[in-house]
Design a protein that fits this description.
316 residues; Rossmann fold; N-(1-d-carboxylethyl)-l-norvaline Dehydrogenase, domain 2; 2 domains
Length: 316
C-alpha cells in the first residue's frame, strides 16, 4: 500500500470483475486485471474506463481520481503479473465451485504478498472455495451487488480459519471505496442478499407465468413499492414503523394472520422447467425490446439519484 492506496488484483473480467475494477480505478487505486479468456481481457480496458468515467458523470467519483486510476490500470498477461505485487486479490470468476477452487489454488501460488484473497461468490462458502489452499486465514468471501461500482452493499463472510483482523482490514478498505460492508455471522448458501432476492424473484416469476401481471408492470410494482420502502428502511424497520407507536409488536398482532394466509399461497417450486424458462425469457425480452444501451444508463442514473437522496437525508 502507498499513500493509503491499496494495490488490487482482479482475476476474472466478467460483469462483476469489471465492476470491481471500475470501482477501484475510480478511487485512484492501482489495479491489475487478468482473465484467462483472451477475448474478455481484450475488451475489459475500454469497459472498465467507460464505467469509471460514468461514475464521474453520475457524481460518484472525482475526475482526478479516475484519471489517476486509469493511468495505473494494468492489463496483465499472466496470473503472476497480475498478483505479484497485490495487497488484495479479488477472484471474480464464474459461479462454478471447481473453477473457483482451481483459481484460488493458482492465486495462492503466485500471490505471496497479498494480505487477503477474496472471492466474489454469492453461492459458495469460503471453506469450500479455498479447499485446495494452505493459508486459509487470508481467504474469505467478499460478495458485492451488481452493479458493483454503484450499489454500496458488500457482504463479508469469513471461514472457520479466517483471521478476523484481516476481516476488519478489508472492511476498512471497502469503506474507503465508499462501500457499506455487512458481516454475515453464519455461512449459508447465497449469503443474505441473494437469498432474499431469490425468494422475491421466485414470486415475481410466478406472478408473471401465472398471468397475474405483465413483466414491466411487475417491475414497476416492486421498484416503486417494497423496493422503495426497503431502500429507506429495510423490511423489519419498515414493518416496525408501519404500526406507529405500537411498532412491530402491534404490526404482528394485527397483520400476522394476513401474512400467514399469503405465505400459504406462495409458490414453493425450486426449479424452472424448460417451457417455463422459454415463457419467462420471451416475456422479459418482449417487455424490454428497446436498446439495452439506453436502458442500462437510465438504470444507473436512477441508482445514483437514489443514493444521492439517501445520503442527503442521512446528513440532515
Amino acid at each position: 500500500m502507498t499513500d493509503g492506496k491499496v494495490r488490487v488484483a482482479i482475476i476474472g473480467l466478467g460483469e462483476i470483475g469489471q465492476g470491481w475494477a471500475a470501482l477501484c480505478t475510480a478511487a485512484g487505486w492501482p489495479v491489475s486485471v487478468f482473465d484467462a479468456d483472451a477475448a474478455a481481457t481484450a475488451n475489459a480496458p475500454d469497459e472498465i474506463k467507460m464505467r469509471a468515467r460514468m461514475l464521474v458523470a453520475l457524481g460518484r467519483a472525482s475526475t482526478q481520481h479516475v484519471e489517476t486510476g486509469m493511468r495505473d490500470l494494468v492489463v496483465a498477461r499472466s496470473l503472476l503479473e497480475a498478483c505479484k505485487d497485490a495487497d488484495w486479490i479479488i477472484e471474480a470468476g464464474p459461479e462454478d465451485l471447481r473453477v473457483k477452487q482451481k483459481m484460488f489454488e493458482s492465486i495462492e501460488s503466485v500471490g505471496h504478498r497479498a494480505r487477503v484473497i477474496t472471492s466474489s461468490s454469492g453461492a459458495f462458502m469460503a471453506k469450500d472455495i479455498a479447499a485446495r489452499c494452505t493459508l486459509h486465514h487470508r481467504c474469505f468471501v467478499v460478495h458485492p451487488q451488481n452493479p458493483v461500482e454503484l450499489i454500496p452493499l458488500v457482504e463479508v463472510v469469513s471461514g472457520a480459519e479466517t483471521d478476523h483482523t484481516l476481516i476488519e482490514l478489508t472492511k476498512g478498505w471497502l469503506r474507503a471505496l465508499g462501500r457499506i460492508p455487512v458481516e454475515i455471522k453464519k455461512s449459508v448458501p447465497g449469503n443474505v442478499a441473494m437469498r432474499i432476492s431469490a425468494a422475491v424473484w421466485r414470486e415475481a416469476i410466478d406472478l408473471v407465468l401465472e398471468g397475474v401481471i405483465d413483466v414491466d408492470d411487475l417491475d414497476r410494482a416492486v421498484s416503486l413499492g417494497p423496493a422503495l420502502a426497503w431502500a429507506a428502511a429495510g423490511p423489519h424497520l419498515t414493518y416496525h414503523l408501519a404500526a406507529g407507536e405500537g411498532g412491530v409488536r402491534a404490526f404482528i398482532q394485527h397483520l400476522l394472520q394476513t401474512y400467514e394466509r399469503i405465505w400459504e399461497d406462495l409458490p414453493t417450486w425450486s426449479k424452472l422447467e424448460p417451457e417455463q424458462r422459454r415463457k419467462l425469457v420471451a416475456a422479459v425480452e418482449r417487455a424490454y425490446a428497446e436498446n439495452m444501451d439506453q436502458i442500462r444508463p437510465a438504470r444507473d442514473r436512477r441508482l445514483a439519484a437514489i443514493l444521492r437522496g439517501l445520503e442527503l437525508a442521512k446528513e440532515k
